[in-house]
Amino acid sequence: MDIPAPSNSTTKTSTTSAGAEDGAH
């Protein structure tokens, strides 16, 4: 959650918070 941008979707998916982040966005 360091980068609050959907650009890092690749890294976001790698994180465990991917589900939460994906739902938030």
UniProtKB/TrEMBL annotation:
Biased composition (Low complexity): 7-17
Organism superkingdom: Eukaryota
Region listing for Disordered, in residue ranges: 1-25
Protein name as annotated: Uncharacterized protein
